[in-house]
Amino acid sequence: MKSKADVVIVGGGINGCALAYELSRRGKEVVVLEKRWLAHGATGRCGAGIRQQWSTEENALLAKRSVAIFEHLSEELGHDIELRQGGYLIAIHDEDDMHQAKENVAMQRRIGLPVRIIYEDEIREIAPILDVKGMDAIAATFCSTDGHANPFLTTYAYARAAERHGASIHKFTEVKDIRVNEGRVTAVVTDSGVITTPVVVNAAGAWSPHISRMAGIAMPNQPVRKEALVTEPLRRLFDCMVISFKHGIYFSQQDHGQILGGIPSPEETTGYHEEPTYSFLRHMAYMLGRYAPPLKHINILRQWTGYYDVTPDALPILGTTDVEGFIQCNGFSGHGFMIAPMTARLLAQLICGEKLEMPIDRLNISRFKGGGVVKEKSVVG
Amino acid sequence: MKIVCRCEDITEDDILRAIDEYGCTTLAELKQVLRLGMGHCQGRTCLLIAAKILARKTGKGLEEIIPSLRPPDVAVEVGMMGGCDEK
Ligand SMILES: Cc1cc2nc3c(=O)[nH]c(=O)nc-3n(C[C@H](O)[C@H](O)[C@H](O)COP(=O)(O)OP(=O)(O)OC[C@H]3O[C@@H](n4cnc5c(N)ncnc54)[C@H](O)[C@@H]3O)c2cc1C
To answer: How do residues A207-234 score in pLDDT, each as one tens digit?
Structure first.
């Protein structure tokens, strides 16, 4: 292992690997440290849906600019990431929902997203297997450029491209401590050696509070166990992701034909609990059958869990801290995959002293000191 | 040609290539890269064979390589799981 680096990134998920790529192509000497294997954390367990329909402009813009990057990422990284843009269909259940949807759509259209409100006939046209009554829906919003990519391939593609630009990626290497001297980061201590560095990026997902604590920084993030399941593969039935903020359900048909989805578990808990639950399986199966009755007859193959790294306002924590050289890149709740391309670019610009393409001051950890944060409302899972 | 995973149509050569190209040293990584063991039988046939190939290539012991198993044990119908007993 190298004994020094310009930047050490803790965590080999989509965010750590994307940032390693953006930094190394700017000439930085980068080391990524991952305690298990790449995409071992939330990245390897996620739905990998890419949605631009958010209620806060920060999330909507991060997602929109990420989609622009995703659209050319296979060529840029030299590896297919299996991007598919089948849209996101978001159920509207009642007048309150409709009110919020109209507000969201107005903002989303202002920033240039092709979002619109659709009704029963068009919902059936887009996804014939949906039962609008079973969904308890009166309408939906739809954005055709939303979609999905393969989370494993995207992470590996970023990692390989970073390595081609000289980054070193160490699997099975755990960060044990961070040395801080006179308010500045000086080194990272791992279970297989020490690396001297002026910059450490905390991209450790649900484990980011531990990494921050090593540098003496407190964080408001909480790990929340989330569950997902996948069915046997079927011929293509529908292209869009279907979600509901009210029911918390999301599901889509993946490239290989399987239906993959999740819903908040009846036994949802904070803390590091990995066990899958039977109640999730029943609840998800029941709701899936209500939303898409034909799916009642197909087999569930597998269920698993992963953590959302949840902040009080469901917005990520990005940027500088009180400790010089300690950079946050975490708190992504249920949407850290879809905004990773743009997040990585912005943090690379910050670390390299370039002009940022969009401001990220409002996502700094200091926002939790004053209170009065604006919460992202459009969350599922 | 030796077939290892019948559900996802993966050969021994595919596995050897993934080990070389992606630096896979665990079954978890082979799953991610190849979809090994993610098909209908959930790896009940192929994972042990793949584990042996990995052990041979990496010099690791089998106990380091075998992954966690994810429920359900056998495939179950959505309608059966979901029943109609919930409101
Ligand atoms: C069930 C589920 C569904 C989801 N669906 C979506 C979706 O549809 N769309 C979307 O955009 N997002 C989704 N998400 C959220 C998304 O998965 C995450 O926000 C994103 O993957 C976070 O990536 P990351 O790189 O920041 O963190 P992670 O992928 O969690 O990576 C952090 C890494 O840090 C490593 N690490 C931790 N501690 C240490 C240490 N001490 N030393 C070294 N390494 C360490 C971990 O092993 C881990 O690999 C979902 C999440 C879940 C759980």
So the answer is: 999 999 999 999 999 999 999 999 999 9
ipTM: 0.81
A338 SS3 class: coil
**CATH number of B20's domain:** 1.10.10.1100
Q: Which of A230, A300, A303 best probes binding to B when mutated, by most B CB atoms within 10 angstroms?
A: A300
Domains of chain A, earliest start first? 7-45+152-221+313-370 (3.50.50.60), 85-144+222-310 (3.30.9.10)
Q: What crossing angle do the helices spanning A151-164 and A14-24 adopt, rounded to 10°?
A: 30
pLDDT tens-place string over residues A5-58: 999 999 999 999 999 999 999 999 999 999 999 999 999 999 999 999 999 998
Closest CA relative to residue A168, chosen from A280, A47, A31: A31
Domain count, chain B: 1
Beta carbon of A20 within 6 Å of any ligand 1 atom: no
**pLDDT, tens digit, 9 for 90 and up, residues B56-84:** 998 888 877 776 667 887 888 998 888 75
Closest CA to A224 of A257, A276, A271: A271
